[in-house]
Amino acid sequence: MTASPITGTSITGMPKPRLEATHHGRTFTIEAVTVAPEEGPQRDEVASLRREYGFPLPAPDWESDDEEGLVLLCRTDDVPVGTVRLVRRQRETDGWCPYLTTELRAALPADPDGFVFGERLVVSPEARSLEVLAVIMHAAATWTSTAWGVAEFAAITRPALVRLAGWLGARQLSEPMVLPGSDGLGLLIGGRLEEAAVRTKAMFSTGGWHLASVGELPTTLARFPEGPPIS
Predict the structure, then answer these.
(1) What pLDDT sits at residue 216?
(2) Would you give the DSSP letter of residue 159?
(3) Quick one: which H or E segment has residue 77?
(4) CA angle at residue 27 from 132 to 56, to 5 degrees?
(5) How far apart are CA 142 and CA 13, in angstroms?
(6) How far from chain centre, in Å, is Cα 66?
(7) Long-range CB contacts (< 8 A, 24+ apart) of 77-80?
């Protein structure tokens, strides 16, 4: 895959741990991607996955929300196969996710501390599996709950994927509806980060995988005492 260069201007203080899941010589690796200059190649990989396999959006392949949140990149045996963006949000705050209808916004978690909103999840067709989604979800749940001190998450998905999301600790929060600017149906899913972390870890434990985390969350990633960053 090729991608146009993307350049970062600063380090946002996002966590830099590494999560590895191995099984009979196969390895999934999850890393956080920041705007540090030396991480240009990783940002290019994220942009390429979005451009080639993601839902077409009127947005750049790398945008300002990526620099405010946590972008995860998944590799299978060193080949980039998946990515997701996680941003801390609050239900009552306007100005983000303009495609969310009034009904969908009303179904978002109401915790005043905010919640984690998952966006731009992309997995290449040849790598799509429950294991890939589980390792991405495990990293997302454990890292964001530690970093931001929030307890819940939410995301938009297709109705056909609700049962799969249930395996990962999510539940349906809204009825399916046509999203603005789209011909397809979408609905809101969400749940507790702790439950998602436990469920996904159990999948690997019972399946004979070895799950290991390398590195730590830096102290520079404070819990945003003034509230979540809003673009």
Answers:
(1) 61
(2) G
(3) none
(4) 35
(5) 17
(6) 11
(7) 77/26, 77/27, 78/29, 80/1, 80/45, 80/46, 80/48, 80/49
111-136 pLDDT per residue, tens: 999 999 999 999 999 999 999 999 99
Residue matched to tokens 């009552």: 92
Count the alpha carbons within 13 Å of 30 in the hemisphere toward its beta carbon. Answer: 28
- Measured CA to CA, the distance from residue 30 to residue 174 in angstroms comes to 30
Distance of alpha carbon 35 from alpha carbon 121, whole angstroms: 19
CA distances from 126 to 82, 109, 122, 171, 179 (A): 11, 33, 12, 26, 27
Q: What's the mean pLDDT in 54-77?
A: 90
Q: Show Cβ contacts of residue 107 under 8 Å, excluding neighbours closer than 6 positions.
A: 173, 174, 188
**Which token pair is 115?**
């919640």
According to the model, what pLDDT value does residue 101 have?
80
**Structure tokens belonging to residue 181:** 């600017």
CA distances (Å), origin 4, targets 18, 26, 34, 61, 67: 26, 30, 17, 9, 18
CA distance 72 to 81: 11
Residue 175's φ and ψ, nearest 5 degrees, are -80, 155
Helix 130-148 with 193-206: angle, nearest 10 deg: 140
Q: What are phi and psi of 180, to 5 degrees?
A: -55, 135
Q: Which amino acid is at 117?
A: F
Q: Do residues 131 and 211 make contact, with C-beta atoms less than 8 angstroms apart?
A: no
